[in-house]
Amino acid sequence: MNVLVTGGAGYIGSHTVVELLESGHEVVVVDNLCNGSEVALSRAEEITGRSLVFVRADIRDRVAMDAVFAEHHIDAVIHFAGLKAVGESVEKPLAYYENNVNGTLVLCQAMEAAGVRRIVFSSSATVYGSEAPVPYVETTSRGTTSNPYGTSKAMVEKMLEDLVAADSRWSVTLLRYFNPIGAHPSGKMGEDPLGIPNNLMPFIAQVAVGRRDELTIFGDDYPTRDGTCERDYLHVVDLAVGHLKALEARHESGVAIFNLGTGQGVSVLDMVDSFVRVNNVPVPYRVGPRRAGDLPAFWADATKARDELGWVAEKTLDDMMADTWRWQSANPKGYEN
Ligand code: NAD
Ligand code: UFG
Questions:
Q1: DSSP 3-state of 317
Q2: Given this model, what pLDDT does residue 199 score?
Q3: Ligand 2: residues within 6 Å at CB?
Q4: Which residue's CA is minimally distant from atom 30 of ligand 1?
Q5: CA nearest 65: which of 37, 105, 34?
Q6: How far apart are CA 138 and CA 135, in angstroms?
Q7: pLDDT at 152
Q8: Quick one: CA torsion of 239, 245, 248, 254, rounded to 10 degrees?
Q9: What atom of ligand 1 comes closest to residue 36's alpha carbon?
């Protein structure tokens, strides 16, 4: 298949590009590099021994997107491009609606014009909202989102559902990710956040490598086993394989929604302890106040992905810790090295 990967120079996109190339698909990446790196794409080529096409463009640029579809015979689109920082989205809501909602709108208009009606979209567990019963299951309706980032994901899901309702030739797969972490086992590709990491795993890795003094654990008075929040962390390579399975297993039109997670909740303290134990490096931390908007605990019911896509998260928490450290210690400054 010829697959257009938007946001393919980013964290999850670049790992998915590797799985696509290794499975024999042809890949065209569109990325504006606002949070991605061309080095990630060269590393993907190095790992797989195959080449891809890279177009530096913004998905909101209709002329550029029309040119991509005119120049390449695209069979399907995996759509990662977007902004993803929850806190920033509260401060700059319009940037999030512009990039995530309008960007997807322009992409779909270009797809429609080119007669390409197959899309796999990066959604998030955050669309379930704070009231959903845990574990989250796909039959639960979208809930009330608590920040513009989450709202932008819910809006795009709804827009894609409306598109299918209007034209049944569209095939839309909504993948709701839980907490992707880890890195490619080669140590050549991983997460490379700009500035201070918002997320737990890259923060732990940067403390371990000496770029930050200590981790602050945001609250230890939650109603959980050890008082810290629990999340469903899954290996980014498993997540990447999930995209491949979604692309290869779904041939029918319509909308399908899948949770991609392990089905296990892991606490913040468990994460720190596992990282230290597996990698034998210290991670100093202190406990601080809760972070606004954090939910105590949620994880996936991932049985639908297993039953319908034949996908299960195979890698262990220890794999996630070891691969994160292999990447971070070999590339202390990320792709800048
Ligand atoms: P990332 O920031 O590493 O990758 C996104 C890529 O999209 C970047 O390379 C960026 O340069 C590019 N991009 C952004 N806006 C663009 C635009 N307008 N035009 C072209 N390119 C653009 O993020 P990621 O962690 O790889 O996430 C990928 C997708 O998965 C995002 O849509 C994100 O919201 C979603 N997601 C991520 C997580 C997570 O925890 N990482 C969880 C749930 C959902
Ligand atoms: N945490 C800390 N210290 C830190 C960073 C995080 O204690 O420095 C804690 C958080 O309080 C939370 C846990 O680690 O309890 C995980 O936090 P992350 O920021 O790594 O992940 P979240 O679950 O908050 O957010 C992720 C994605 C969002 C998505 C959300 C819901 O980053 O994009 O899951 O799916 F919206």
A1: helix
A2: 96
A3: 84, 86, 124-126, 150, 179, 198-200, 203, 215-218, 229, 231, 268, 291, 294
A4: 122
A5: 105
A6: 10
A7: 98
A8: -90
A9: 9
